[in-house]
Amino acid sequence: MIVKPRIRGFVCITAHPAGCEAKVREEIEVAKAAKKEGGPKKVLVIGSSTGYGFSTRIAAAFGHDAATLGVFFERPSMKGKPASAGWYNSVAFEKAAGEAGLYAKSINGDAFSNEIKAQTIETIKADLGQVDLVVYSLASPRRTDPTNGETYKSVLKPIGQTYTNRTLDTDKGEVSEITIESATQEEVDHTVKVMGGEDWELWMKALDDAGVLAPGAKTVAYSYIGPEITWPVYTNGTIGQAKKDVERAAAAITAAHDCEAYVSVNKAVVTQASSAIPVVPLYISILFKIMKEKGNHEGCIEQMVRLLNERMYGGDLQLDEVGRIRVDDWEMEADVQAAVAKIWPDITSENLNVLSDFSGYQNDFLELFGFGLKGVDYDADVEVDVPMPSHS
Ligand code: NAD
Fold it and tell me: Quick check: is 31 in a domain?
């Protein structure tokens, strides 16, 4: 079929298999160009199909020749409809890994469940023996707790105050004002249940108890801090409480197992998760303009190459005062933040394309779903029902 983008609010409900593959090949070239000796060899990536987790998988495989096992929740093609982008990304990744002689398998299902943890452990036992790096990169709006069967939903809300600021309708290119009411305590607790560190701890315990965690293994989960303008809805909001819990979990994991657990604070980038956060896409559009002008703009793959090659396996962790890895360092530089803050009050729908890199935002957004890639014929018929190589 001929696949065109169908955008609904902050999601695109179609994805292009050839476009996703082209994007994956681009990221692979970035990882290969930065190839380094040493580093992780057997890697489990939880949340491996899109965004930061996917780029970490690429950086580990093609930058360090690592065997990778990926866990994700994606939709294969059904009834002639395209699969989700993360499905096509993973198919393309497995294909490229196979061509390069690298082990790559993928497990599609709910990472919060006991069943998927057990299936992952069985696969590691059978194929890899042990893993020496575990990447935890889930971004999910809900989680069913396997201990009580209850489903919790996360919300993106401020705590203890109503928050009003500018936001961007990325579909229409309109800047408007948004007001978000304060979260209830129950909403805070549920967001921590979904996006906090509890499930990361459960994974690490399950892996260690099963003997599939290599002695001295490393594990990393991702966080975000960002500019003061977004703090009420991010860092000081419900999601910020969940991220504090991820930091708590890192210390608990290091104490409980023979492994080093880190939180890496990453740069703001366009992903399916970040496009859903109010205010953040407008900030990202301005940030991209400033960082591209400064010449130090990065996407997911450049960030993850720097995380593995320089920080986690380069002997230069550069931990901050509370022990976190900071690859958001260039985003948070004082001159970058001052430049964003200067533009922020003046931005309107009319000057959006002048004062920000909204077109760069839109390109990145379309690329998430395999659209707008050079060399892809979007008028050609493509097979949308593509199987996962490791599932056949
Ligand atoms: P994303 O939406 O691109 O990726 C989420 C991944 O989680 C996908 O692979 C998806 O399949 C998987 N997933 C979701 N629910 C699942 C489930 N129940 N079972 C199995 N897999 C599931 O998100 P992202 O932006 O890459 O976020 C990953 C992490 O990076 C998050 O912790 C996020 O807070 C953090 N982070 C993101 C940014 C940013 O700007 N995007 C910045 C800093 C940190």
Answer: yes
